[in-house]
Every structure is written in C-alpha cells, then in structure tokens.
Amino acid sequence: MSIAAAIKSLQTRFGDKVTQNAAILEQHGQNEAYFPVTPPDAVVFPENTAEVSEIVKICAEHHCPIIAYGTGTSLEGHQLAIKGGISLDMSKMNAVLAVHDEDMDAVVQPGVTREQLNEDLRATGLFFPVDPGANASLGGMTATRASGTTAVRYGTMRENVMALEVVLADGRIIRTGSRARKSSAGYDLTKLFVGSEGTLGIITEITLRLQGQPEAVSAATCSFPDIESAVNTVMATIQMGIPMARIEFVDEMMVKGFNLYQGSEMPEVPHLFVEFHGSPNGVKEQAESFGEIVADMGGSDFKWSDSAEERNALWKMRHNAYYAHKALRPDAHALSTDVCVPISRLAEAVNFARAESERLDLMVSILGHVGDGNFHCAVSFDPDDPVEHASVKEFLHNLNQQALELDGTVTGEHGIGVGKMKYMADEHGEALQVMVDIKKTLDPLNIMNPGKILPMN
Amino acid sequence: MSIAAAIKSLQTRFGDKVTQNAAILEQHGQNEAYFPVTPPDAVVFPENTAEVSEIVKICAEHHCPIIAYGTGTSLEGHQLAIKGGISLDMSKMNAVLAVHDEDMDAVVQPGVTREQLNEDLRATGLFFPVDPGANASLGGMTATRASGTTAVRYGTMRENVMALEVVLADGRIIRTGSRARKSSAGYDLTKLFVGSEGTLGIITEITLRLQGQPEAVSAATCSFPDIESAVNTVMATIQMGIPMARIEFVDEMMVKGFNLYQGSEMPEVPHLFVEFHGSPNGVKEQAESFGEIVADMGGSDFKWSDSAEERNALWKMRHNAYYAHKALRPDAHALSTDVCVPISRLAEAVNFARAESERLDLMVSILGHVGDGNFHCAVSFDPDDPVEHASVKEFLHNLNQQALELDGTVTGEHGIGVGKMKYMADEHGEALQVMVDIKKTLDPLNIMNPGKILPMN
Known about the structure:
The structure is a homodimer.
Chain A: H1 3-14, E1 18-19, H2 22-28, E2 42-44, H3 49-62, E3 66-69, E4 86-89, E5 96-100, E6 105-108, H4 114-121, E7 126-127, H5 138-143, H6 151-154, H7 157-160, E8 161-167, E9 173-177, H8 189-193, E10 202-209, E11 211-212, E12 216-223, H9 227-239, E13 244-250, H10 252-262, E14 271-278, H11 280-296, E15 300-305, H12 308-319, H13 321-328, E16 333-340, H14 346-359, E17 363-369, E18 374-381, H15 386-405, H16 424-428, H17 431-442
Helix pairs in contact in A: 1-3, 9-11, 10-13, 14-15
C-alpha cells in the first residue's frame, strides 16, 4: 500500500503512458494561483475510459491519490498533488464523439477544450456558449462548475452538462443523465459530479447542450459615475427582460489597466461592456432599450456597434484583463479571486473590496459578470514581501467573509480547490457534514483528489 | 420501535396537530394514478421547521416512516403510505417568507402553492414561471422536479430552485445553496434534494428564481398533416433561436377530445399551441418567423393573436386536457403517464405510442411539451376489466422501454414514485447503486418515504 508500488504496477501495465520525467512532473504541479509548485509522483496519460478504470483500480489497490488534470488553468490549486500520487492527464482523451445537431447537443471526451469544440461546430450553425476566458478543457470546466461572461444568458456548466460518464473510486464505470432535455427519474447524479473537482470520480465523457448561433450580434459600452449606477442599470435591464448575452462590469482601476496595456484613452471610471444576441431587429431594439436605461441611471458614453471587428476588439480587451492588470505593476505577481452575491448587494460588495484594497494599500482591479452578481478581484503583490503577502491574505479573507454576510458564496465560478477550503464550514454550516458523508460513501479510501474542497479529518 | 409508539409520542408532544380521523387518513392515501388507496397511520400538521425537526427525531427514534404531503396531485403514487407511518402534511407551512424583487427571487415555505405565490407577486411585475398544470405545492414541485408547459423557456424546478432548507432523517436542519445566482463552492446539494421525492429529507424552505412579467405576450395555433412535420417545425424553431415561451403538441385524438368536451370544431389532426413572450415588436417578429417555419414544414391553419382573452381560452383548453380525454370515454378511468426523449427521436416515440395503442385497442390521447421532447399519454381503461388492465400495463411497459431505447428517460416530469421504480435499473444501470448508497448514507433507517424511487433490498 504505497504510491511507489502503485506507480510500479502502472508502469508494468501501461509502459510509456506513465512518466516520471522531471519537467512533466513540474508542469503538472504548476498553478495560476499563489501556491508553491506541488508536483505529482507520476503522470499517466490514459487514452480511453477502460484505461482510466484500470488505472483507478490499480491506485485503489495501493491507496494512491489520483488527480485528474485538464489544461492546468484552474485558479484555486485544484491540480496540486498535495498528498502526492498520480496526475491523470486527460489530454489524449480529446475526441468530439458525437454532434447531434437536431438535438443541439454534443458528446465529448474530457480533454476536448472549449475552443476545439467550437471549431468543430463551426459548420453546424451551433456553438457551445460557456466561456470562462481560458481555453480550458471541458472536463476541467465540468469538474469546477465553470462559467464566465455568457452565463447570464446561457447558464453555467451546471445548466449545460446533460449527462456524464464517470469512473468511480473503485473503477466502476457509471453513466448519469441522458440526452433527454429533462428527467425526474431519481437523484440528479450529473449535478453531483458537476463541481466535484475530481473528488468523487473521474469524468470520462460529457454530454453538453449547444445553442444556435445568433443571427445577429451587437455590442455596446457605457460609463458610469459610480458602481451603484452601473449595478442599478444591470438590475433594471434584467428585470425588463432584455435577454443580455453578456453584461460585464469593470472598475476605474481596471480601465486604467486597459489604457496602459493597449494604449487606449477610455475615461477612467466604471464601465459596462455588453453584448446582445438575436434577430437583426431584435438586437437593435435590445440595444436601444438598454441605452435608455443607461441614460436614466446617469450613465454616459453609450456606444453600440454591430461590427464584428469592434466587438472582437472589445472582448479581446476584456479577456486580456489579467495582463492589463499586470501592466499596472509589471514587476509584481497577480492573482485572481472571485465571489458572488445577490445582485442587490453587489454595489456594497464591490465598494467594500475597493475600500479594503485602499486600507491595505493593495493594487486591486475589480471586474465581474455583473448580471450574476459575480465579480473578480485581480490583486498585485510581491510574494517575497511578507508584509504585502499578509495584506493579500487579509484582503481575501475579508472579501470572502463579506460575501457570506451578504447572503452570497465564496466562489461563483473558480471553485474551492485548496485555496478556499477554510471557508466551507462558514458557507455551508451543518450541510458540510452531508458533503463529507457523500465523499466518504463514494470514495472511502480518500484517493480521489484528496485534500481538495472538503476538510476530511 | 413501532409506528404505534411513534404516534403515541407525537400525540403527547403535538396534541391536536396529530390526527387519526378516518376521512383525513383516507384523503392522504388517495392518488391521481391507478393505485389503490393506501392511507398512513396518522397525519401530522407541522407549523414550522423546528416542529418538523422534532417530528422527524421522534419518528427516527421509533423507526416510523415519514411521507411529506403537499397537495396530493403527484401522478406516480409518491404520497402513498405503502410501509405505513405518518403523512407530514405541509399545508400549514404556507407563508411566502420574502420576495426580493431586485434580486428576482422569493423564499417560500413548502406548502405555498404556485398560484398563491403568483397571486402574491402580482404587484411586483415578477412571476414564478414553472407551471405543471395542477395548482401543486412548491414543496411537492421541488420534490418531484416538476416542470410543465413553460420549461422550454424558463427551465424546470431543477433550474429554478436556488436554495433549500431541509430537515434530514435524524432531525438535523441544513441549508443548501444561497441567494447567489451561481456558486462553485462544493457539492450541489440543492440539486440532490430537488427530485428526491421526500426520500432524503423534508424540504422546509425553498428559494426560487423569479422572472419579469413579459411586456407583451401572444399565442398561436397551427395544424399539421402528421407528427413528423410538427416536430420538424419545433426543431427548426428552436435551432433558429426563437425564444418560445410554450410550444405544446396535441395529437388528433386529443383534438377530438377538445372538440367533444368544449363543442369546438378544430380539424382533427396534430396541432401545435405556442406562446411568445417579449417586447411588442419582439413577439410580433417571433410569431412571423414561426409562421414562416410552419408554412415551410407543411403546416396550415396558422392563427396568432395578442388578445389575452383568446390566449387564456387556449391555455384553459390545454390545461383541461385530462377532462377532454375523459370525455372521449366518460365511463372509464384515465391515467396520465410521461416519458422524455431527445427531440430528434420524438416523432418515432409518438408514432410508436400511437401504434401500440392501436395494437392493444386502447384509447390514448398524446400531448406534450414538445420543445423538451417530453410527452404524455392519457390512457382510458376500466380497472375492473382484467384484460384491459393488462393491456394498459403492457402499453406503459413498452412505452418506457422504447423511451430508454431512444436515449431518453422514463419520466420527464412526473417522477418515479412507486409506479416507475421497476425501470430505474434499466435507465441507470450501475449508477442506481450510487443512488442507493447515497440514500443509505442520508437515511440509514430508511424512514424517509420508504419504498419510493429506489429498490432498497
């Protein structure tokens, strides 16, 4: 019963598909958060579900931890081998298995990335809408319940994963859900695995909802004197039923970053960036109605465009937010965190974050998927400066506590990983024990991504 | 450890809130399906969560079954006391606890009915969209993962329940989810309890998403020479992104029933009944686009109207489908069943149901939430005629098996109850054991609605 024995057994069975190459181990222990590199003892590259099942059985026999690995773009250290063991790299399981265009669904292996899927779908008139920014794997996006800029219209992975194939902790292979759009047949196991961050089983196949490509798309930007007027605009827009495809908030510091990074001259005040999907008349009407609300709420600089070029430039800018934030202080590290609150509390939460950043003398840009009440703080810091490091920790702690006080959650879309485990009891209270009980039932040996999400001792 | 001892203890603690009145017991053992009356040993009427917790603790002490009871309108015998025990009637827990209009959510007790909630919301400009036809309790709708005519646009209870308070099988009270629109903080316990049919815990509070009342609403009807052309119309409509609020199919037999029941003269061929929500221009454009698709697909008799009176008459007719079907054979009983398949297989599934009804000489009307691939069969039969009773059973069995062969589910919205337990293994395979393991973890004494959903032995 040891990790070494498991790896030996895996090498015997799988040969070259198992590696202990130092550079590959190091790469699988990297993260985009602020954690030290924590490599696994080996990386295994399965090619199909049967192999995943065999690997899991061997690991179970030896009580060896197994960490599913997609593209490594998660933000809370989900992929770190904090208890050692193997990283199960799903990149070779990257086939789009089926596209059912009449049913508007697709069946993919977990290593398929969202850009790869959308490339494959181009000729069908369909697309997969969930867009977290990074070109993440769909397995990883499922495991972290990812979302992003379009969730306000099309939902998160929670709403867009219809069915799964999962290898359980003892190697059994199950299927959850079906291609039917809805079902009342028993417990919703699909939703239990979506967001379970590899702690309950290995996702080996995913059935996803697709959307029809909109006939027309237009985008708009506008600016506001303060966060309140921007948030009031969003609330009025959603209450009126304008079906926003994206509605993104950026604060004055973030705009400053954009200006610096790309040499633009936007007024350095809070902005909304929005997108409309629909018929040509529909998007025109949506944009006009939105523009009226902006004016009512004291916004200005309202510009809309149906040019694809201008729109692409806008979303490219938004997607480069991390780099734009880094431009504000190029020599520092930058981390990204997220919380989510009811939209009526959003202005309060953002103002609190701004005040805390000033109190702690931290450089923080704020941006968010404001239609969902979800926002990000990009925080610059010097990891070698213990005082600043402590300030960052205090900032993050207070941000999370504030989100809970406002009836929200400590993460809208990044997940728990190792970074936010300490808030699970505060957020869930007695319900946390139910999660622990389910984990113990499905993974009694605690070999599936141990040390993530749940405090198990 | 007996039911009698539990009831004695409950009477001591709760006095008049516990009844063994024969008429009330009988009423709580009734069902709208085809099962014999199966009353509980007592009915208890809790008034708050603390009382529910106390009741559950007393029942746990005595291993006494507990069956949550809403309005008794479920269709697969969910509320039957097949192992005896107490019926927990939630009708006194019927307060709307909060309406957060800025956040577009409401917090309700489980005994609130959907019509009561919508009545309460009238002045806010908001409404709760899920509409299964019956004026069911929101607790029951949550427990059975209900949906109905508007699910194609607004989703089912799965998408519309944001958070829950639940009393577990040992009396502990937990909260799942929050009022944040999305979260990646741990396992999705909310979705685990939605659709669990009272087998994992008692739902005592529900936070629901609301929608803005559409500025304009219009409705349309059209007819088709066959089911294929009706289904092709639906597929094209959804692929084009026309945001249908309702899109309902009725077959020729159902139309015959409507004509008989209400003295109308609709052509006795397949029909679609649809509704559009949006801005005044938006619904006009949607209706025109839809009309073009209908014409392309060989449909006719396309009529649309923005008159509220005509629209209400249309949906009243649709909601009276059960009585209209009964009018076809007034002396017989009628049951309603449902299955759900990928929409590309819908025509095949409906044609199969029609052919089976003819082969078995049964009177069957078919109608459905065709945008979701979900359809109902209303079946007339004489319960005292053993040959006809056997034919009904054969029809239902073949209908369910066919749904599974077509990659669908044995129930899109009615639930499993006792009626469809026999198909759970066929639908879920190895995953059924995972459901059983979760049930055993959360309800080790098997006192929460025992004998429903899962075969536990």
